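hey m, so remember when u said the tokens were messed up on ur end? i reran from scratch. heres the input so u can diff it against urs
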Amino acid sequence: MNVTKNRLRGVEWLPLTLAHDLRSPSKRIALAVVIASCYFSGQATSQPKQSKIDSADRLFQAGKFAHAGKLYSRIATQNPKDYSAILQSGRIALLSNRLDDAQKWLERAIILQPGDADAKVMLAEVFYRRDDFQKAVASLKGVDVSNNKLVASQYPTLNVAKLESFTSQTPYELHGNGESTRLKFLKTDPLPVVSVRVNGGDEVTFFIDTGGSEVTLDTDFGRELGVPRFGTVQGTFSGGQHADVQQGRIDSLTVSDWTIKNLPIAMLPLRQLSKDFGVKQIDGVIGTNLLYHFLATMDYPHGELVLRRKTAKSLEEFAATSSGKRVVVRFWIASDHFVVGWGSVETLPPALLFVDTGLQGAGVKLAESVIKEAGIKLEEDKTSEGAGGGGKLKIVPYTVRQLSFGGIREDNVPGLYDGPFPWEYSFGFHLAGMVGHDFFKPYAVTFDFKNMQIFLHRSSDVALGRRLTLCR
């Protein structure tokens, strides 16, 4: 058995082919520890120190980021030259969107090992999230971005030519009056669809998808607009499919009575999805990276997207005006846009789940290993064909008898299997699957990226066709 080490992520974890065979979380973690121990056994390090590193790595692999971060920080305090502990401290701060802390740790890591690219790439992501694209470019100096595996797999938005094109401009510059704006859904199903304007043109139809990163245009639509192009990256989509994603930028996006100027974008064929949405033409997607710049609410019961300025005042006003039962879920940002939070599937132990509101026609999609471990049966006799960003898919439905996300639990949640779940081990910790459209539809879902929490608020007049309870 040839078990390789993932040097990109700073911790040892199992390659996908082996990890799929491990159905028990305890087995996954135990074997990862054995592998890590084998690797470190040849290093010149003391046993007590090694034990602490192993413990921190186990915590990280299990998604216990706060506990892992404290242990890595303690190791780094005791040994200021421990690159692995310092790099991991920076990685966890970035996951938690504590950008000042992340910058501090990652700059320390670069001083220790200036030839290693990982810290430079993650530091560039820190500046990207601050909309300081020129510092992001400077952080990538000496990195072969086009061939860097960490950029390709987790941070494809770090396209140097695209970022450099924003010199003397403020990305995501907001123009508009008031503290908030509201954009009505044209349709809520199969996904929320809205009308926007690109570069001041006519109204076009976009859908909203937290499974996407930057605003994305249909390839032909981008060509019609004369959008500048900055190369191509390979995107990963449902079922493990891949497709080329072109990089570009637009001058403006008008959302209701607000206009956001100077936006980085991606482009891929989207008009092929128009029939599935029941609209004349889909021209684009609003993804997580736009929502990140606001206190954003996808209000499914009232059929609207609400964007509030990302200020303490807006959060106070939001908290004061919301009423009824409200559940708060803490989250982290993996890669350049993966919003992940704790949930549970059936009677399995808690696991991290990806918040993908763009999961169409289901409330959940689980990794195959989780489906097997939970004893969930695929309904092969109901197999159908669907389309994703990478092309045609074979879709097999199933039902999850009980699914929780944060403090919310729903019974008999529709799920779908469309092939491998490609992100199960992509980030050095285990993702059990994703929570999608049908799960969130009864709620107004608010993303607070400043404090890294999701608010799930259910209007009292919303009738549900299935039992819904608050977890105790």
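this time it looks ok to me. Confidence is low (pLDDT under 50) at residues 1-46, 461-472. if urs says something different then somethings off w ur setup not the seq
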